[in-house]
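Hi R.,

Here's the chain you asked about this morning:
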Amino acid sequence: MSFTGLSQGASALDSLEKWQDAISKDIAYANKVGYRSAAVGFEGVSHGEMPSATHTSFVEFLKGVTPKERVQTSFAQGDLTPTENPHDFGINGSGFFELETKDGEKVYTRNGEFRFDKENTLVTNTGAKVMGEGGAISRQAAGGEIAVNRNGVIFQDGQEIGRFKVVEIENLGALQESRDGFVGNGNDPLVTKDRENPEVYQGVVEKSNVSSVRRMMDLIQVLRAHEMNQKVITTFDQQMSQAIQYLSYSR
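And the predicted structure, written out as tokens:
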């Protein structure tokens, strides 16, 4: 059973390392607008049955179970923070802004830090176009500043020029991170629909949903678990060494 103990301890250390990586990333991006934190879970994975060292009428076999991490994205909403910039936007509730990259790829984001480019098209900091219900959102070059109501309708000089396309994604697990936000993972097609009556705020951005205090507490928990598993591996290693020495002396 020592080999099983070593395997379980090593698997636990590997899972803890991935958890620590997720925590470190969350802390590094805690101040990034619209960033979504990691949700890490663990489960026991059975890898078969092995005969026990001593057989009894109650236990004939022992299950080999090792821990396995499961890293997903938390889509819980972050706080909406005023910026007074008329080109910053935040969504209250579910949904994503839809973007289109230069390659024509659809991207979904909660980061509403936008700007107008030299063609007067609303874009992200990386140049992806912000999509409205009728296509890319543009303004009149000679017009005044835009205004957006709570339903995401965009006005310029009192005239409606577009409306943000706010998209809800039913299978959030099919999303993966990209440079501009989230895209489909390529395994499962995204199931999307336009959100009815979206709630869009102008002059605000949505902060990340990372709790720095919680992540620091998680990091302490990881370090303690790491230390404990190292002790378990050391103990099993010592037992194996003692068993080998005993067998060599008994010959």
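Residues 52-62 have pLDDT under 50 and may be disordered.

Let me know if you need anything else.
M.
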